Amino acid sequence: MPSPDVVKRVRDSGRTELADRLSLIGTDVKITIAYQDVPRGLGHAVACARQAVGNESFAVLLPDELMGDASLLSQMWKMHDAGGKHVVGLKQVPMSEVSAYGCVNTTGAPDKDGVVTVTGVVEKPAINEAPSDLILIGRYVLGADMFDMLDTLAPAKGGEILLTDALLMAATAGNLLGVVSDIDRHDTGTPMGWLQAVIEIALKRKDVGAELSTWLEGRFK
């Protein structure tokens, strides 16, 4: 939630609408921060949230992967609520990109809703060893038992606790579903990905999109 002093300064400057929007941030949610004191991988980071989450299902959203809207996560929650299985977001990408992500095996083609049963998970495979062209895209809906699986894991190469290793345990037990989505997605984890995200999102804004588009067209004439 923004500092009251910040909201007051914005309001005093005459930007009333912006001040009203700022004052609403965080008023309808409870925020608990769990610190990962050492960089030991995504699985370890998730495990650090165990006390805050308790014995409830939860979602993991990787902040460097931006999605166009909340439709994918909403579908994943409904699937988890209906069957109790862990659910991961997936996207089909060129094989040249799979080595940068977790990659999955599935039982076959997605159904009409994009749903597949995940049977295997591999962390950043070599292109010639990748089981498919379906990657994990930073959206997970997980049951509380995921914490127990994370607790059993030995560190992988580099000393990290990998979430993909716990997901593999769930897949092996027949307890992992995926949703293959064509949702707008930006991976801001690289300089080029970050730049592309900034430009594409800015182009969709009503306040600056048209002006930015005109400027870009002028730059490349």
Automatic annotation (TrEMBL):
Its EC number is 2.7.7.9. Residues 26-197 form the Nucleotidyl transferase domain. It is an enzyme of class 2 (transferase). One of its GO terms (molecular function) is UTP:glucose-1-phosphate uridylyltransferase activity. It catalyses: alpha-D-glucose 1-phosphate + UTP + H(+) = UDP-alpha-D-glucose + diphosphate. Pfam families: NTP_transferase. GO terms for biological process: UDP-alpha-D-glucose metabolic process. Keywords: Nucleotidyltransferase, Transferase. Belongs to the UDPGP type 2 family. This is UTP--glucose-1-phosphate uridylyltransferase. It comes from freshwater metagenome.
